[in-house]
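From the shared-data thread, chain only:
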Amino acid sequence: MNTAGVDGASEGPCFHGGAFFGAIGDEFGDLGRSADIVNADVLDAWFPPAPSVLEALSEYLPWIVRTSPPTDCAGMARVIAETRGVDPAHVLPGAGSSALIFLAFARWLTGGSRVLLLDPTYGEYSHVLALVGCRVDRFTVDRSSGYAVDPDRLATVAAAGRFDWIVLVDPNSPTGQMLPREAMHALLDAVPESTRVWIDETYVDYVGAEHSVERRAARQANVVVCKSMSKAYALSGVRAAYLCGTAETLATLRPWVPPWAVSLPAQIAAVYALRDPGYYAARYEETHALRGRLEAGLARLPGVETVPAVANFVLCHLDPGGPTAATVAARCRETGVFVRDAGNMGTGLGSHALRVAVKELDATDRILESLDDALCRAP
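Structure, as tokens:
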């Protein structure tokens, strides 16, 4: 485990993918350009939202865009609660997981807080922890173990560390690994009551809803689940997410949630998406098949080693003697294919780690062709 005190917040926002908007234009003058690019540098779903979502938004769009949403997202919270088997008091909706991370960490943490964070993991967490000024201890997972989290070692560190919070992304990004369900519950049994555990389950639906610990979070005071609906429900553009925790825990945040925190398109989309589980279950099965095709294609490229994954993306390591991930990503952009240099997502990934999102068949073939050219091109 590496220990790193945070000296201060980084300047500007956290770096994310999304470089593909450079090809489309962020003033949206020609959205038709979107058909010419492959945005595999972000983890947006490759499939569209459920047909019922699109039908509702399309049929009533003029009314939706001019109408104020329900102030407190109460209907959205009720549908989430019904779907997940918890009480609505255990659900706090928000405009995407990032909005909830900023809200909760700013209220629950201080400069004196000590936090245990996976390394590598989703970069928003280290960014926000730096803004707050927390002391961050890094629980390192490395390539030699396939980036698997050792639950026994994590439980030992958690029990001995006197942490205020432990932050877990499960399945983790960019590694694509997750703790087995039994191991996660054993960890939550072992964590001291004085330590709170934040579990980001953005990608868990790709593996199966039965792996979620939302119901446990609803009854265990020191556990909070953050659940984005962006990636698994194909709703990245409308921004919908929620926290699940005990009513008492979430009550400390509710006064700080502004009115109309989630837009009307997002609330409608979230409700209709949750009511069509069959559609999404079929898309998740297709995602696994597409990921297998992507992994096999990546493994055939020169000097590429893939990390087996469970969600909608693949981490791979490039030959250290060849071009860096940044160089490969830049070369791919010339062909309209966008992939992510993952080096800044952890302290040990280095300059040759690349993350690629799962996309549909034609886009997958374009990704592999572009990567092959980028890797083999002379300097």
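The radius of gyration is 20 Å.
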